[in-house]
Amino acid sequence: MTERMSDVRVRFAPSPTGALHIGGLRTALYNYLFARHHGGAMILRIEDTDQTRFVPGAEDYIKEALAWVGIRLDEGPDEGGPYGPYRQSERKSLYLDYALDLVRKGHAYYAFDTPEELQAMRDRLTAAGVPQPQYNSVTRVQMRNSLTLPPDEVERLLASGVPYVIRLKVPRKEEIRLNDLIRGWVLVHSSQVDDKVLMKSDGMPTYHLANVVDDHLMKITHVIRGEEWLPSAPLHILLYRYLGWEDTMPQFAHLPLLLKPDGNGKLSKRDADQMGFPIFPLDWTDPATGEKAMGFREAGYLPEALVNFLAFLGWNPGTEQELFTLDDLVGSFSLERINKAGARFDIQKAQWYNQQYLRRKSPEVLAQYLLESLATEGIECPREKAIAIAGLMQDRITFPREIWEQGKYFFRPPDSYDEKVASKKWNEDAVKVISAFSDALGKERLTDASAIKATWEAVASQLGANPGKIMQALRLAVTGTAGGPDLMMIMEIIGTDEVRSRISSALKTLKVKVA
RNA sequence: GCUCCGUUCGUCUAGGGGUUAGGACACCAGAUUUUCAUUCUGGCAACACGGGUUCGAUUCCCGUACGGAGUACCA
Fold it and tell me: How would you write the pLDDT of chain A (515 residues) with one tens digit per residue?
C-alpha cells in the first residue's frame, strides 16, 4: 500500500502571489497524502505566469510552510526532477508551440482586440440586456480576430508586432462530460464556456494552457485541486482533447472549500483578523505594503495539530478515531472519503487538537519552549528546572507559550494578588498559620514537596486549623493567583527561602478582612 | 442574471430504505482535585422544505428554498 511504488503522480501548483492560504495548505496536504498512500510522487510546481501579481518571497514562504507541516517533495524547483523546470516562468518557451498547434488545427485563433475594444463590446452587450457578456462562439464574429479578418490582414498584423492573444475556439454546441473523483459525472454545455485566452499578449500562457501542458508533460495522473476550479474543468477537458492527449488525461478531484466560521463565504484573511486567529501557516509580511499577518506556527500551533485539524476538514476515516499523525493519515487517506460540501473553519477544534498533541510531548521538549520564552524575558533557568515546570504545566495549557504566561510565579514574585481570593480566603486564621509556616521553613532546610507538605500540615494542625481550607491563602501569597498546579511542587521548585520572602511580602501587602 | 456544485446536532462529521440517527469540538451539570486545568460520568442538540417511488424514506427521484463557487490577457 504505502511502500509500493506506483505511477501515481500529483502536483501542488500554487501561484507565488503572497502567503500560502490555509486552504491551499490543505490542498497540498491532500495531494501529499494521496501520493504517499499510493507510493507515488509529490511534485511542487510554481505557477508564476502572471508577472503583475508576482510577490518576492512568496515561493520561499510556500516551501517553508510545506516543510513545516512535514510535506516532503519528490520533485520541485529545489528538488529538481526529470520533468523540470518546475517554475512556469522558466518553461515559457514551451507553451507557444502548443498554442500554435491548436491554431493550426483550427481549435484556436489569434485575437487582436484591445482592452478598450473588449470593454466596448461588453458595455454594448450589457446595455442590450446581456447580463454577463462573453467572448464566445456568438460574439467572436464581431471582433477583430483571425476568424473575421482576411488572412493577409492577419499576416500583416502578426508581422507588424501589434499585441495579440491566442484564444481557444470553443464549439457552439457540444456536451462536455467530466467524471470527478469526488462529485461523479459533471455535465456542462460548451455554450457556457467562453473563448478563453490561452496565450497572453506578453507571451505568457494563461493558467489554463500552462496547467494542461505541464500536467501532461509532467505525467500527472491525478489533479487534486480546490472546487473553485470545477467551472473551468470542462475547458481543460477540451484542451486535452484538442491537444490529442485525452487518452492520458489525468483524473480530476475537486475539493470542497474552507468556509468562514460563522456567516458565509470563502474563508478570508479579513475573517481571521476579525476573529483573532491565523489563516496562514507562518507569519507573513507583505513586502509591498508592510502589512503583517499572523501564522499558525507563531501563534503556537504544533504542525501535527494543524495537519490533523486540516485533514479532518472535509475528510474522515470513517472510524471514531480523531487523532492522526501525518503517517497515520497517509495510511488511511482516500479520495472516496472526501466530502462534497464546504467545511466551516472552527478554530476551537484546532485548539483542542493543539492541546492533545501538546500533552503527548515530553516535558523535555516542552521545556525548550519555556526556555525560549525565558530567553526573551532575559531570565536564566537551569534545564532541569524548566523540565520540572513544563511537566507540571503540561496538561493545563493549549499553547506552549502559556507555560511561561501562566507560570510566571515560578520566576518572579507576584506583582499583584487576585482580589477575589484575597477577600474570601485571606483571614486571621490563614495569616496565623502562614506566618508560623514561614517560621518553620526558616528553621529547617526543606528541599522536596513532601517534606514541605508535612511541615505545612503539622503547623496547621498545631494551630487547630484545617490545612486544606487555608491552602488557598498560601497559594495566593506564593503565586498571587487562584489556580495552578500542586502548590507543594511549586514551593519545591522556587525554594523555601523564596517562599518565605513572598509570604513576608504578602503579609505586609494584604489586609486581613475584618469579619 | 446565467452555469456548475452542495445541504445530517451551533461546528466538523458517521450512517444509510425499517437505527433509541453514532462520534468529536463547543456548551451545561455532577464526580475527582486543597484551587485552576486535566480526567471521568451524564446532559442538551440534527436528517432544509414540498412532492413522488415504496408496505415503509432522513436515505432513491423531481422540484423549491437556502448556501457556495465560477462567470478576467488572475490563478
Answer: 444 467 999 999 999 999 999 999 999 999 999 999 999 999 999 999 999 999 999 999 999 999 999 999 999 999 999 998 999 999 999 999 999 999 999 999 999 999 999 999 999 999 888 888 999 999 999 999 999 999 999 999 999 999 999 999 999 989 999 999 999 999 999 988 999 999 999 999 999 999 999 999 999 999 999 999 999 999 999 999 999 999 999 999 999 999 998 767 888 888 888 888 999 999 999 999 999 999 999 999 999 999 999 999 999 999 999 999 999 999 999 999 999 999 999 999 999 999 999 999 999 999 999 999 999 999 999 999 999 999 999 999 999 999 999 999 999 999 889 888 888 888 888 889 999 999 998 888 888 899 999 999 999 888 888 888 889 999 999 999 988 999 999 999 999 999 999 999 998 888 775 54
CA of A65 to C1' of B7 (A): 33
ipTM for the whole complex: 0.95
Residue A19 CA, nucleotide B46 C1', distance (Å): 37
Query: Exposure string (b/e) for A488-503, b if CB count within 10 Å is 16 or more?
Result: bbbbbbbebeebbebb
Q: Which nucleotide is nearest to A338 (CA to C1')?
A: B13
Protein-proximal positions, strand B, CB < 7 A: 1-8, 10-15, 22-26, 34-38, 67-75
Taking C1' of B68 and every protein CA, the nearest residue is A265
Active-site residue A196, yes or no?
Answer: no
Q: What is the amino acid identity at position A104?
A: R
- Please write down the HEC assignment for all residues of A395-462: HHCCCCCHHHHCCHHHCCCCCCCCHHHHHHHCCHHHHHHHHHHHHHHHHCCCCCHHHHHHHHHHHHHH
Instruction: Compute, in degrees rounded to 10, the torsion defined by CA atoms A502, A507, A509, A515.
Output: 140
Nearest nucleotide to A130, CA against C1' atoms: B1
Is A29:A310 a contact under the CB 8 Å cutoff? yes
Taking the CA of residue A359 and the C1' sugar atom of nucleotide B28, their distance in angstroms comes to 25
d(CA A393, CA A397): 7
Spatial distance between the Cα atoms of A61 and A16, rounded to a whole number of angstroms: 9
Name the nucleotide nearest A227; use CA and C1'.
B69
Quickly give A397 CA vs B52 C1' distance in Å.
Answer: 55
Which residues does A452 contact at the CB level (< 8 Å), separation at least 6? A441, A446, A488, A491, A492, A496
Q: Long-range contacts for A444-447 (Cβ within 8 Å, ≥24 apart)?
A: A445/A496, A446/A496, A447/A492, A447/A495, A447/A496
**Gap from A84 CA to B2 C1', Å:** 40
Choice among A269, A385, A408, A424 that is catalytic:
A269
* Nearest nucleotide relative to A114: CA against C1': B73
